[in-house]
Amino acid sequence: MMKKLALLTLLLYCCSAKAQSSYTPTPDNLAAREHFQDMKFGLFIHWGIYSELGAGEWVMHDKQIPYNNYKRLADFFYPQAFDAKAWVQFAKRAGMKYITITSRHHDGFSMFGTKASPYNVVDATPWHRDPMMELAQECQKEGIELHFYYSLLDWGRPDYAFGSPIVNGEPVNGNWPSYINFMKSQLTELISNYPGVKGIWFDGYWERTNANWHLDEIYGLIHKLNSSVLIGNNHHEAVKPGEDFQMFEKDLPGGNTTGFSGKSQISQLPLETCETINNSWGFNINDRSYKTVKQIIQYLVNAAGNNANFLLNVGPMPNGKIQPEFADTLAVVGNWMQKNGESIYGTRGGLIPPQQWGVITYKPHVLYAHVLKTPRQPYIFIPSVEGKVSKAVLLADGSKLKIKQQPEGVFVYTDGLTLDPVDTIIELTTD
Ligand code: JFZ
Asked: N or C: more exposed end of the chain, with fewer CB within 10 A?
């Protein structure tokens, strides 16, 4: 009897331990990952009551505004020009296929109608509208995927107790079970109530890496509610069980110019890198360091060549409009995507490593060599090409190029060509 019990206990223990540390994605989750990789280009949006101050989404923290004073911003939040249709058209015009938007940032203000806290856009502002719902419905209508950014970090809630020492994985001055439950309620709302939500983008983990975030339960809950929702977490560490894609902040996979990404090994999961159109995520009235069309296209091409999606951020203004400088730049990017999108959408990268002159994307039987920099020699060399190359043309006008194929790779001769300063795309057909 005792032996049987011990065996049963052991069995139960093993099963539960296994359930927590391993994760087998469902077939529809795997299909969602493939589709995610095919989309390649997304719009990141940081928008909240912080936008009113025009000094970025960290303004409460940076200017040391006491939470109770900061909360007053909710009283003045009335984005009279907000139009979900305009935002979705803005993304489509740029050639973007999905939108990732801040449903709740570190200030703890929920930009959606939630029953879990009165501190939300519907109940605490005179506007009384739910922009996340309006956006979700519009995205669904227009075939744009919607992902929600969700902050794990909260500067204001007493149960989170920002600044508290962490002992045994919990903030001693807070109420950790209460905070974890609060997040579970909100995530349940976001997944169940908003139509067509396809991803959750977590952030803020890095603020207390020694806390027990109960990620296994949180991820498990999300996948139970909808197994095809893709989970990513901006924790800057190696991917954890339950995650469906890996993100890199302001860096290409493997790069670490920011110092954030040092601990993240590149995983086998779909990859995404995010950058912002100037130097701010949330609206910053004094930030005029706008990236150029060339910078944005080359970032996108480099991301694709490294097998990653590019999530490009804008911070809309407090009136709900996106500033015209961004629209102008992204319309030109959109024109480029219309012409050259076949070398980006639905491709994969990283099989052939980046070269001095640029990167390579591919589809079955097609390689796209993106020449981003003038090659050192009068040719480009593409190493380890599989199959025989039967044709090499310029994507721009279909003109034929001279090549030489050897066992170690293919030479494409570029002498006499006028190179496009943004990207000269050479299409190689293989059998
Ligand atoms: C985070 C947020 O804090 C920021 O507001 C924005 O939403 C961005 C996309 O993500 O930015 C970070 C995350 C981590 C570090 C710094 C900024 N870090 O580890 O130093």
From this structure: N
